[in-house]
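User: Sequence in, structure out. Go.
Assistant: Echoing your sequence, followed by the structure tokens.
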Amino acid sequence: MNNNLWAKVGSIDLPLKITLNDVLTVVCECLNVNINDVKGKKGTDDLVSARKMYGYFSAKYVPKAPMIAIGHAIGKDHSTVHFYKEAVQNMMFTKDKKYVGSIECIDDKLIQMKWSNQYYTRNPETVEINSL
């Protein structure tokens, strides 16, 4: 068992795992947009920003997920996800406080999620446990 991927909670070994759905949920919470709208066809600025952030943070926190899978979750192809990822990387040094604040909100929540017991999955093949 790889110790970097598992945490011991009492007598139970729990994997430290963030899913693509977790990333999408956090992005939508921080940007105050609806998940179904992000998955939809609308191209408003707030939804495009959410899709870009989702692409970037999915690649960061779910590194083994293929770009095709990341894009499929929001109805985009892998090349669009690659563009989204680069766009956020380029914008990370902007002076726009709202944009930087959104990035920090998402990053903070995903880091907290990674280490919080309430988001652990007992067995990846079965169901997620909301709290222990």
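User: And one key feature?
Assistant: The first helix runs from residue 20 to 31.
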